[in-house]
Amino acid sequence: MRFFSDNAAPVCPQVLEALTEANVLDTAYDGDAWSKALDARFSELFETRVHALWVPTGTAANALALAALCPPYGGVICHRDSHIQNDECGAPEFYTHGAKLMLVDGPQAKLAPDAIDALLGTIRDDVHQVQPHAISITNATEYGCVYTPEEVAAIGALARKHELGLHMDGARFANAVATLGCTPADLTWRAGVDMLSFGFVKNGGMSAEALICFRSEFATSSLYRRKRAGLLLSKGRYLAAQLLAMLDDDLWLANGAAANAGAQLLATAAGDRLVYPVEANEVFLRLSKEEAAGLREQGFDFYDWAEGEARLVTSWDQSEAEIKPLADAIAVLG
Amino acid sequence: MRFFSDNAAPVCPQVLEALTEANVLDTAYDGDAWSKALDARFSELFETRVHALWVPTGTAANALALAALCPPYGGVICHRDSHIQNDECGAPEFYTHGAKLMLVDGPQAKLAPDAIDALLGTIRDDVHQVQPHAISITNATEYGCVYTPEEVAAIGALARKHELGLHMDGARFANAVATLGCTPADLTWRAGVDMLSFGFVKNGGMSAEALICFRSEFATSSLYRRKRAGLLLSKGRYLAAQLLAMLDDDLWLANGAAANAGAQLLATAAGDRLVYPVEANEVFLRLSKEEAAGLREQGFDFYDWAEGEARLVTSWDQSEAEIKPLADAIAVLG
Amino acid sequence: MRFFSDNAAPVCPQVLEALTEANVLDTAYDGDAWSKALDARFSELFETRVHALWVPTGTAANALALAALCPPYGGVICHRDSHIQNDECGAPEFYTHGAKLMLVDGPQAKLAPDAIDALLGTIRDDVHQVQPHAISITNATEYGCVYTPEEVAAIGALARKHELGLHMDGARFANAVATLGCTPADLTWRAGVDMLSFGFVKNGGMSAEALICFRSEFATSSLYRRKRAGLLLSKGRYLAAQLLAMLDDDLWLANGAAANAGAQLLATAAGDRLVYPVEANEVFLRLSKEEAAGLREQGFDFYDWAEGEARLVTSWDQSEAEIKPLADAIAVLG
Amino acid sequence: MRFFSDNAAPVCPQVLEALTEANVLDTAYDGDAWSKALDARFSELFETRVHALWVPTGTAANALALAALCPPYGGVICHRDSHIQNDECGAPEFYTHGAKLMLVDGPQAKLAPDAIDALLGTIRDDVHQVQPHAISITNATEYGCVYTPEEVAAIGALARKHELGLHMDGARFANAVATLGCTPADLTWRAGVDMLSFGFVKNGGMSAEALICFRSEFATSSLYRRKRAGLLLSKGRYLAAQLLAMLDDDLWLANGAAANAGAQLLATAAGDRLVYPVEANEVFLRLSKEEAAGLREQGFDFYDWAEGEARLVTSWDQSEAEIKPLADAIAVLG
């Protein structure tokens, strides 16, 4: 049983079905009926007028967002353990044309306003130093923790004060919303977020993520950048259809909640072994080499993380029955 | 009936089926069984060792290829009417970090060796002028014409002489091979091609094209550039599966031939109205405004091209019965 | 006697003297008294508030200007024979991060409004095509001809209508102003120019050109880009001092007029041989191979240009006595 | 008396004189006699065949070197306190087209092989993470300390083992060589350095630094990149002449030694207050706010550095008599 990554999970039946339904003749690129419906559907979800662009990866969504918010000669403040810094092979630098990521530490892979303030205090306001133009936060974070709407709003206020754009990497946005029980609006634009990478692939989608632009001036340039990056698929209806299927009946939220529930089963079993609070679908726990080997012998697969730590990721399709054996095996370790 | 674009056509049943079959748990990105099979399967097709990378668009394939062949301070020789110059919103400039496209004219959107030579003759060999590093040709061309293996080889020889890389934009490679009856090998690496954008989406695929690297040094850098560009989908098996399905039983070639056959029906009907020889699945014909309006009234949709010209594109899924009405309507115009 | 290039000429005594005077302790970069005086001095010259940045080359000035006016995904309309297209090794593409130069033809290397309009008419307003964001004109042009204030204003009006920025490459701005007898203001911002590369090096300077920003929003980003490009010399006072010396007593204008006068001597001698009207310090004339060889035998050096054409460039330091021998030798050819 | 920066110092008389001597007609750009002499003169100094390119700033030299050594998708290992990271407004990212600086800590702003090794150990060898392609060290360092030839060689060996290029930022190379008493060759290519930014401006020059390429493949691309960056001054002879004047009679070394001697005077006075060993022309010392204010009242100018620290920089032109008052004032503080 694999607890490696939510990317390994299969695609949700509703998404697959949507592909079949979209398999008719229509206009190329994003001129089709499905793509044209996105702005309205996401605007409804977010209770405000947004522009929604499908893109094939979260990396693309993140990089496009940062390119909209930060000029080539600027900087983006982010966590030292963020995906944009460590796992995207320099995509932010590519899309922004060389902006600098400015790294901040903080527990749970979260940025705290005072840590951002401290970084800002070290930057001389002259042309010799790269000046920050944006902040990027990840919700849920790399360590499966969430920012509350209030926490985001505190960062949003700081961003406004310093005239910085605010991006949210929401690869696991659904998991965060499911945990928090808040509205998508409260967690984003009402808290000052300008651009959101809204993830669907880890959550049951196949190949479509959404870049949500809460300010229309960023949407226009992003449309050109998307094409210029080779991200404008010629049969876009198959991406748009996935997103629409995920929005129908709030499937995205149900899937996020399902994955979270699986993680809670494991968290309960792990008890004191937990490295971070489990607030999404990732469980980081202390595990000795021998313990890890023992679990693997029983057929459970997962990543080693830091020395003496392991990461378990649950996904939308794992039932309690599928997860329970691992939970039991962990509980047995004591 | 739409004759706008082969991008508007639906996806082939075999491809859809392959998606369903791939809908199981596997490793993320390109670590899955399908993705890992690509090099071998394409190597077999091309009768030599190649590296094959799936990408979601032809624009991405083209831009990655050019980035591998040309440094930021170099130039790429291409036709004035090429897709990379006119229809990719500057993707080559983005991926190469600012290389210059050097435009050459020629009938049928084809580059002739002497036209390339003439351009080369105008470039001073000093640091003030951008120096060419690559040639890019399109086969079949923007105007539905083909380069024969001999024609490609003549350009390949010129490329070698001047130490230029050679890229082929094969968005309609299947159509070209189907028309020429040659092997894929003869039309590419045996003729000096270094990188091929092998198109599948216009030919019945959904969202996967192949970047074929005939020299391994270009594959390595392309793997990093693909990730960095946000093109490495996290569930890559759904792209690889499409490509494998298209290779099975040479579906790609059958689809290309089917689209070509439809174009021949139209070409025969068009007779003297043809602007270019019809050698793939595109038909350019002279059509007055009134004639075009008349055809549209009968329910046929297509693009106006230059003044007094129209473009008709046929696709893999159109039967003779579906095309005949348009052929007849054209024949009636006289 | 060399008529190759005004870059080959020595530096004006006033400029050399200014270097010696600046050879004292002062603040680094552009914090010194000389650099700080530039905005005011150029504002006076241009009769409006401008920002003036020293840079070491005209290529740098041009590229910085274009980067301010055009986003990476945009295009810059310019003449096919412009310096930015042919002689800067892709500097505009480097600084703009891959914008596309959109080439227009026209006699005397001048852009005419209707030729620009014709180009604009060919560009589809969709994300597949690079959209123009700026126009760049050269005054005096590559062929030694000038745009009048009215001609610039016509282009400026077109630029405003289409929301395009307007840049003037003024490598030989002094020569143009000297010929036209107009004010610098009339030839630039009053005619709609947003950014001017004001050349001094060809006109007696050593290593300092000025980038003039007529709109302050462009100045701010240019200050960062200048540093980021390694163009912010650490002892900037030596560049600023050159510019100030050239402005003193309108030395720049006197030098431009002197070079122009030399060219007129040659133009008169050349008569019907002239390829273009001589309106600055360049003379293009028809010259057979034998005639060219004959002149070279007499000790005159110059560039061959197109087949059967030669280019003669005069500079600020050449007296009538120095030029007359060549004028006489040309006149003798008949 | 200013102890702010060696950039504030005036230009050496020999350099000024060289400018006057170069003030004759010659070929433009780097085609003149002075520029052409550089390769040979620097090859002699370095006891091996090198290519030497003049550039107007150290930032430009550094950025060109990194662009030659590292592809856009790669990384450059450097010290957290290095100039390329903190003081060049992202020039490395601009010239490399978005490579990532990978920061390492270490005392005295020096990189130690084991610290580099530790960083390398954290990078997964997959396409998701930026892979390092080069190491950049600064000698003398930002804190006025030097790497010995043996220390450089240890890093050079590590670089070779991991197939990384090695760049040395030698803004104060002269100061380092003067302190070490070694040959320039021993401190560079014999220790594995591929590219050197050889600084002259802080050391008495006006506007010319040298980029030294120890491997010819890097020189070719750098020539194009220099032009493309707008760094190829049209009257290059005035830069080349400065460098030649500095090489004559080892003026560069004498100037470096002179500045070092001044720093030693201050170091002796500072005694236990020193934060770092004084091995070049910079002195970092502990100084309370009150003490700093006291010194400033006496007419000494300098930068505050970290909390409770100050930086004093001496330059080539300061005699013992000029420095002694400050040394005495510091000694008095006890």
Q: What is the number of domains of chain A?
A: 2
Largest sheet of chain A: 7 strands, mixed
- Going across the biggest sheet of chain A, name each strand in turn: 1-7-6-5-4-2-3
CATH class of the largest domain in chain A: Alpha Beta
Order of helices and strands of chain A: HHEHEHHEHEHEHHEEHHHEHEEH
Number of strands of chain A: 10
Proportion of residues in β-strands of chain A:
15-25%
Biggest interchain interface, per-side counts: A-B, 50 and 50 residues
Poorly predicted segments of chain A = none
CATH H level of the largest domain in chain A: which superfamily?
A: Type I PLP-dependent aspartate aminotransferase-like (Major domain)
**Straight-line N-to-C gap of chain A:** 21 Å
Q: How big is the Rg of chain A? A: 20 Å
- What's the oligomerization state? homotetramer
Enter the CATH topology name of the largest domain in chain A.
Answer: Aspartate Aminotransferase, domain 2
CATH 2nd-level architecture of the largest domain in chain A: 3-Layer(aba) Sandwich
How many DSSP H or I helices of chain A? 14
Helix content of chain A: 40-55%
Instruction: Label the structural class of chain A.
Output: alpha/beta
Organism (chains A, B, C, D): Stakelama tenebrarum
Pfam families (chains A, B, C, D): Beta_elim_lyase
Cofactor (chains A, B, C, D): pyridoxal 5'-phosphate
GO molecular function, one term (chains A, B, C, D): lyase activity
